[in-house]
Amino acid sequence: MHRRLIVPGAIAASLLLAIPASAADFTPGASGIGDPYYPASGNGGYDVAHYDLRLKYQPGTDLLEGTATINARTTQNLSRFNLDFGLTVSEVRVNGKKAKFARTGDQELEITPAAGLPKGADVTVVVRYAGKPSELKVNGYTAWHRTPDGGVAAQEPEAAVWWFPSNDHPLDKATYDVSVSVPDGTQAISNGVLRSQSSKLGWTRFNWRSNKPQASYLTTLAVGKFDITTDKTEGGLPVINAYSKDLGDNAGAARASIERTAEVAEWLETVFGEYPFNALGGYVPNVKSSYALETQTRPFYSPAAFNNGSNTSIVVHELAHQWYGDSVSVHGWKDIWVNEGFARYSQWLWSEKEGEGTAQELADHVYAQRPADDPFWTVKPGDPGPDDQFHTAVYDRGALALQALRNEIGDEAFFAILKGWPKAHAYGNAKVGDFVKYAEKTSGKPLAGLFDTWLYQPTRPEAPAAKAAGLTRSSAAHTAEPKSWKKIAATNTVHDHGHEHEHGRKH
Ligand SMILES: [Zn+2]
């Protein structure tokens, strides 16, 4: 859902009738949206407005059957176009007519409609499919979590390919209706508001709705046996949390953390401004992974995140992403700092509020712990490269950059920026460079040098930059460990998405 000029349908249609394009003017849409980190991600030639997913899932066999109806608008004269998808497709219709389709590469579904689609036309694509997501391997890897009682889709930068066809890149966000039928006694959790739930002949259908633009990787599905808690915030937002019934010894700590979601969101509103969505929550399925993910309105948490007890800091991190990452999304994956630098910094601010170490003390400790020859400093948070997209440096050095900014422009301008940015780019996409410009405009100071030092140089910033950032100690022996340090460090696994280490890069 890019922002665009809305042309009334009738006028657009009459223009198209008046100037018929010849077949030669219709060309295939690109097989990628143009992200150099992940060339196969997303597609060209159209823009999705809405996904309607009607699914049936069998926890016993992992069989997922679905019909995806996609409302899109063409951005060029299209002879054919791609969706990103891996399960087995039985039928594709475009505007009601059967379309030819073929699989190309690992994750491309190439669709040739009966006739070319003119630029600027509203198009409805229906894809019928079935398959077992756990058996679908893309470069030897599945993002789908199989659990003893079901399955879960929650992964970054790609998860959709394993369960629904999409234009799989944050640049094309859309609204969603996700309707899932599962055997009675089992639940289906997704994003947004639960509109309804009904049971018939042994199957229960859950109807979820996300009414604000949502990136495909932030769209989640969890089927399993959950204990569900529901509540409303003081402001009236519905809160739905879900906990696998099999969390064992982690059950208490998971609840003690995630039941504080409304409290954390309320505090984040004082830092980032009004919460951008109409629902809140979190869920903990019985998965073996250790990471968490900011799936929109309802973050995913691995049980292992609570191995050492409750951790509110991880809830702070994932909820901070609702502003920084979900409402304002990356333009390309190289812009990951706009997500992770701020989510990590929000943990420092929470620590500051809780009296467990100020952001400055945490910055000082990070800096002191990392000697100049630590490879940590070779990672450029402003453009880390696909292999280091979720490197600790994107988080910790990324947060150091914000502490340097805070010292440079003062608290008043700094917090005005933290609040103003999510509003300025709400429900859209933004680049690191956009943030630099926004910070310069808001503070009235030239900041290109500061951001170059902290985000783009492959070396440790030394004096005078480090001194200006309040970083005075050069070895860990000289700083006391802030009280929040271990809790925050424990959330370093939030970006340990597993497959980078176990299965090699996907792209
Ligand atoms: Zn994060």
From TrEMBL:
Cofactor requirement: Zn(2+)
* Annotated signal peptide: 1-23
| EC number, UniProt record | 3.4.11.2
Q: Where is this region: Disordered?
A: 465-487
Under Gene3D superfamilies, the record lists: Neutral Protease Domain 2 (1.10.390.10), tricorn interacting facor f3 domain (2.60.40.1730)
Alphabetically list the UniProt keywords. Hydrolase, Metal-binding, Metalloprotease, Protease, Signal, Zinc
Looking up InterPro entries in the UniProt record yields: Aminopeptidase_N-like_N (IPR045357), Aminopeptidase_N-like_N_sf (IPR042097), Peptidase_M1 (IPR001930), Peptidase_M1_aminopeptidases (IPR050344), Peptidase_M1_dom (IPR014782), Peptidase_M4/M1_CTD_sf (IPR027268)
Task: Check the record and name the SUPFAM superfamilies matching this protein.
Answer: Leukotriene A4 hydrolase N-terminal domain (SSF63737), Metalloproteases ('zincins'), catalytic domain (SSF55486)
Q: Which residue range or ranges hold the Peptidase M1 membrane alanine aminopeptidase domain?
A: 308-454
| Catalyzed reaction equations | Release of an N-terminal amino acid, Xaa-|-Yaa- from a peptide, amide or arylamide. Xaa is preferably Ala, but may be most amino acids including Pro (slow action). When a terminal hydrophobic residue is followed by a prolyl residue, the two may be released as an intact Xaa-Pro dipeptide
> Cross-referenced PANTHER family, in alphabetical order?
AMINOPEPTIDASE N, PROTEASE M1 ZINC METALLOPROTEASE
- Write out the similarity annotation: Belongs to the peptidase M1 family.
Q: What is this protein called?
A: Aminopeptidase N
What is the source species?
Answer: Streptomyces alfalfae
